């Protein structure tokens, strides 16, 4: 579960020589939850995305997939994040 530290997992405790003390790519604990309070009736601002060269777009997609896979980011379900 998200509330359990890696060090608290029994198999990690039993086999400490196999598990590294730092796990690369493991999502960090977020110390602060951020919120943006909106005034009632506020609607998303619509702007076109920046144009990118094909090679830049390919790199962007690669980095996004990498970060999604590691759990550092997640897809947005917000109308503001479209």
TrEMBL record:
It comes from the Eukaryota. InterPro entries: DNA/RNA_pol_sf, RTL1-rel. This is Retrotransposon protein. It comes from Trifolium medium.
């Amino acid at each position: 579960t998200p509330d359990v530290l890696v060090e608290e997992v029994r198999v990690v405790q039993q086999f400490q020589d196999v598990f590294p003390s730092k796990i690369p790519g493991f999502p960090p604990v977020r110390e602060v939850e951020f919120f943006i309070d909106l005034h009632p009736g506020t609607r998303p601002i619509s702007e076109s995305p920046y144009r990118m060269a094909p090679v830049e777009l390919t790199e962007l997609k690669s980095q996004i997939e990498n970060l999604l896979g590691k759990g550092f980011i997640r897809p947005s379900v917000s109308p503001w994040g479209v």
